[in-house]
Specification:
The complex is a heterodimer of chains A (386) and B (222). Chain A is of the alpha+beta class and 386 residues long. Chain A has helices spanning 3-13, 15-52, 90-93, 127-133, 154-160, 196-202, 223-233, 243-285, 287-295, 300-337, 349-375, 379-383, and strands spanning 57-61, 66-70, 73-78, 85-86, 102-115, 118-125, 139-141, 149-152, 167-170, 173-181, 191-195, 208-209, 211-216, 237-241. Chain A is 54% helix and 20% strand. In chain A, strands 1, 5, 6, 7, 8, 9, 10, 11, 13 and 14 form a 10-stranded mixed sheet that branches. In chain A, helix 2 (15-52) runs antiparallel to helix 8 (243-285). Chain B has 222 residues and is of the alpha/beta class. Chain B is built from 6 helices and 10 strands. In chain B, strand 4 and strand 5 form a beta hairpin. Helix content of chain B is 30%, strand content 29%. The chains are: A alpha+beta (386), B alpha/beta (222).
Chain lengths: 386, 222
């Protein structure tokens, strides 16, 4: 018979009370594990979706001038010595150190063309890349697939007075309008989009491009590093991060994380309160027992060890059960929280050991005062009979 | 030879605005091997005296010396150690630990000693044998009768071979037949050399003791 036998026997033979205490802690730990796991699983997915939503790096040719455009208002500008990027150099972007963080590379060629007696800006794009990048685009009709198909911005379609299915002539070639963009409020509204190769031919810019928009995944890589890496590969190009987009995304993610951790904090507090109240109740219930321990010569430290050992063992059990239940809960909840089919449950060792450690720490901390209270009990008052 | 020397013992409690003097200057000596009963009506201060003699409650004034050691001058937790090594207690309600078997309850005072577990079990088994309950060592308290629970409580009090055994109204919750058996058990323990101090309100129990001290209003009257 050692002190731990007293704790173990109490736990074993007072199953209902210990089950209540354990369940209180299990609920707390399980909620934390579920929240943290969901946050981890979802933040990766949200991050990926946000990064795919529009470009955050812009690659343009170096030019010795300043653009005089703001909010779609163009006042002209002074530029000279205009360069272009070679299409063959685009492959270099894929060879940077953080290439795995590149989600989409969308090259564009721009040029003015005469359509139905009006000057319009023709933009050559790779439609699969462009549609992935601009997920907010709403199309009436379909995206062009063949070389002789066009997509028009809403203003361009209105000015040129065309609808989906109509035809337009550009430089003597006939094109079919397969899709028209819903109003975006951006410069896209005034553009005519064609396949990249076709636009290069029409604009006489074969193998050259004017602009590359890159969607980079911010996760695990500062966007600034990627900008430098691309600039190293393309010395003739100007590479810049769209700070507004990058910062906005980081802030949104940060807020999401903060919300999750605040929720976890509230649950931790409630869990601690449950343990504290239950342990305090248990100590008060065992007043006579503690009086007997003191009367037969147990020191205050012995009483504390008995109570804290019980709490620690409950903490270990609750930590294991809570982790299992929490991961189970996260697995069930995850499909309802996000529509991404490839969304995977994140199994994190830190969460596993963290939840176990937290459970034990919570149980011990919440039992510290009850244990101190028990150890300070006056044996005669505790026994009452004396 | 005196085992315990009590000098000028007083104990006062605050009860609301008033002060209650539970003990008002007690002088008492208890000899080695003596069986002493402390008699008195309810409120006479007998249980208070027992708790002070047993090192459980600090007196307001006076000294309690056991084997020359002033109990309440012991520093820190030394008094708890003293209780563990030298004293045994039997309580009126037995106060067995409900989730421990009879054997485990008897082993309880040894839980904090460095003795090997086998020796603890042997000592507890021996103590249970001395009170005639060796066959029910594995029973939980709620599986034992009142008399059997009392026997377990006595075995727990004597397992570490205390110099002094205190009993507070040990027959208070028992029928007359079982009470007689218990008193015979205390007597046999005393005859084997155990010093016993018992608080009781039953005059018949005094027949088993060597000496009886009568308390009234916190004073020794006989």
């Amino acid at each position: 018979m050692k002190l731990h036998n007293i704790s173990l026997n109490n736990l074993r033979r007072r199953k209902a009370k210990m089950a209540f205490l354990t369940i209180g802690l299990v609920v707390g730990i399980a909620t934390i594990v579920t929240l943290v796991t969901l946050t981890k699983s979802m933040s990766g997915d949200i991050e990926r979706k946000m990064d795919e939503f529009g470009a955050n790096i812009l690659v343009t040719p170096q030019q010795n001038g300043l653009a005089m455009t703001y909010g779609g208002i163009n006042l002209g500008g002074v530029s000279f010595d205009q360069h272009e990027i070679l299409e063959s150099d685009l492959a270099l972007i894929g060879s940077i150190k953080n290439s795995k963080n590149i989600s989409t590379v969308a090259p564009k060629v721009l040029g003015s063309v005469q359509v139905a007696g009006r000057q319009v800006l023709l933009v050559g794009v790779l439609f699969d890349k462009e549609l992935k990048l601009k997920q907010w685009w709403k199309l009436f009709g379909e995206a062009p697939k063949a070389a002789d198909e066009l997509l028009l911005g809403s203003d361009a379609a209105r000015v040129l007075n065309v609808m989906t299915g109509d035809s337009l002539d550009i430089k003597g070639e006939r094109f079919k309008v397969t899709g028209i963009l819903d109003q975006t409020g951006s410069q896209d509204d005034a553009l005519v989009f064609a396949q990249l190769g076709v636009a290069q031919r029409l604009l006489n810019k074969q193998g050259r491009i004017n602009l590359v928009e890159v969607a980079a995944l911010c996760s695990g890589c500062p966007i600034g590093d990627m900008v430098l890496q691309i600039a190293e590969k393309l010395p003739g190009a100007k590479v810049s991060a769209i700070q507004q987009v990058v910062e906005g995304r980081l802030k949104a993610l940060d807020q999401f994380r903060r919300f999750s951790y605040a929720m976890a904090g509230v649950v931790v507090f409630i869990g601690s309160l449950i343990v504290f109240v239950t342990m305090m109740g248990s100590v008060n219930e065992r007043t006579t027992e503690i009086g007997v321990f003191r009367a037969i010569g147990f020191r205050k430290s012995h009483i504390m060890r008995i109570i804290l050992l019980e709490a620690g063992l409950v903490g270990v059990l609750a930590g294991l059960l809570g982790y299992g239940a929490g991961m189970g809960g996260a697995k069930i909840a995850l499909p309802f929280m996000a529509d991404g089919k490839q969304l995977l449950l994140v199994w994190d060792g830190l969460v596993a050991f963290g939840s176990l450690g937290l459970s034990v720490a919570l149980a011990l901390l919440a039992s510290l005062y009850p244990a101190l209270h028990a150890s300070k009990m006056d044996p005669t008052e505790a026994l009452r009979a004396l | 030879m005196s085992l315990i020397e009590v000098r000028d013992l007083t104990k006062s409690y605050a009860s609301g605005d008033e002060t209650v003097d539970a003990l008002r200057g007690i002088d008492l000596s208890i000899d080695q091997g003596e069986f002493l009963t402390i008699m008195g009506q309810s409120g006479s201060g007998k249980s208070t005296l027992l708790s002070i003699l047993g090192g459980l409650s600090r007196p307001s004034q006076g000294t309690v010396k056991m084997e020359g050691v002033d109990l309440y001058a012991l520093p820190g937790e030394k008094l708890a150690d003293f209780r563990s090594q030298k004293l045994g207690f039997v309580f009126q309600s037995f106060n067995l630990i409900p989730y421990l078997t009879a054997l485990e309850n008897v082993m309880l005072p040894l839980a904090i000693s460095s003795v090997k577990n086998k020796e603890k079990q042997a000592a507890a088994g021996d103590a249970l044998g001395r009170v005639g309950l060796g066959a029910k060592a594995d029973r939980l308290p709620n599986q034992l009768s009142g008399g059997e629970q009392e026997r377990v409580a006595i075995a727990r009090a004597i397992v570490n071979r205390p110099h002094l055994l205190f009993a507070d109204e040990p027959t208070g919750n028992l029928d007359s037949k079982t009470s007689t058996e218990m008193m015979q058990l205390f007597r046999s323990l005393n005859q084997a050399g155990q010093t016993v101090v018992m608080v009781t309100h039953n005059p018949e129990n005094c027949d088993y003791s060597d000496r009886t001290v009568q308390l009234r209003d916190g004073l020794v009257v006989v």
